[in-house]
Amino acid sequence: MSFFHLKNTIERNKYLAAKNLKELNLHELAYIHLNTQSPSIKLQDCSVNSRLFGLHEILLVTSPSKDKDFIMLITVISLINELCSIYTLRASRSTNAFVNFLLNFTSLTPIQAKLLYTLTKCLQKDGGLANCRVANDMSLAVFKYSNSQNEAITPPTLAWDGRYPIKTDNVYTLINVLELQKLAVNILDRVFQGLLKRKIQIVDIPVEDFFYKYLDKL
User: Fold this and answer.
1) DSSP type of residue 140
2) Sign of torsion, CA 33 34 40 41?
3) Which of the residues 9, 115, 160, 192 could staple to 171 if both were Cys, CB 3.0 to 4.6 A apart?
4) 67-90 confidence digits (pLDDT tens)
5) Distance between CA atoms of 22 and 171, rounded to whole angstroms?
6) Is 114 in a helix, a strand, or coil?
7) pLDDT in tens, 35-55
8) What does the alpha-carbon distance between residue 173 and residue 45 come to, in Å, rounded to a whole number?
9) Terminal CA-to-CA distance of the chain, rounded, Å?
10) Residues sharing a CB contact under 8 Å with residue 26, sequence separation 6 or more, in sequence order
11) What is the DSSP string of 56-95?
């Protein structure tokens, strides 16, 4: 019986406990990577933990506050980026891999997904919350923390022209950090369930490369 035909977590952990690390294939390592229910998985010759576990714990235990919003935002983006770089569905709804990932694993609209991609690129570039140039699939956008809407990311009611100073709040794209936390946790769960049901694809990567990038041996 293959690993993914096992019925539950107990059976899967028992299967892994009888295996040495070097015997695991890519899909079995992906299971350990996405399984954030425990700090580590015990194998016959060692224990292995996923670096996603720490990110997931931060999302679960940290309450949003003004002094923690940026840290939480970086945590959410880091988790989504990592998942997006490894896992995908067969359905292609955008030529942009990040946007396509969001459209497949969330209920975000294409506009919201593109804005979240723009926010991600802004943070990666200089840690800022504005993009005033249209390039590389990015939208003109200036972002602002707000819990006034029950959406992870709320598009502006008035298009921003990329110019300063900003004279109306209507051009801001609103970021609800609490909803972003929930979004990231739900994405992780959906990817994990998709792996168990063999509905997702894993990037073509050598097993050793996957291990050293995303897992730790204890």
Assistant:
1) P
2) negative
3) 160
4) 778 888 999 999 999 999 999 987
5) 53
6) helix
7) 988 889 999 999 999 999 988
8) 50
9) 28
10) 202, 205, 207, 210
11) HHHHHHPPP-TTTHHHHHHHHHHHHHHHHHHEE-S----S
> Per mean pLDDT, which range of 12-16, 131-135, 147-151, 188-192 is the poorest?
131-135
Confidence of residue 64 (pLDDT cuts 50, 70, 90): low
88 neighbors 96 (Cβ within 8 angstroms): no
Is 121 in contact with 136 (CB distance < 8 Å)? Answer: yes
Question: Residues 108-116: contacts with CB within 8 Å, 24+ apart?
Answer: 108/152, 108/153, 108/183, 111/155, 112/151, 112/152, 112/153, 112/154, 112/155, 114/138, 114/139, 115/139, 115/141, 115/153, 115/155, 115/173, 116/152, 116/153
CA atoms within 13 A on the CB side of 31: 19
CB count within 10 Å of CB 200 equals 22
CA 195 – CA 204 distance, rounded (Å): 15
pLDDT at 129 over 80: yes
Q: Extract the tokens encoding 153.
A: 């990311």
Output the six-digit token pair for 21: 């690390």
Using DSSP's 3-state secondary structure scheme, residue 161 falls into coil
Tell me the pTM.
0.90
Distance (Å, whole) CA 191 – CA 97: 15
Among 100, 105, 80, CA closest to 181: 80
Maximum CA extent, the chain: 64
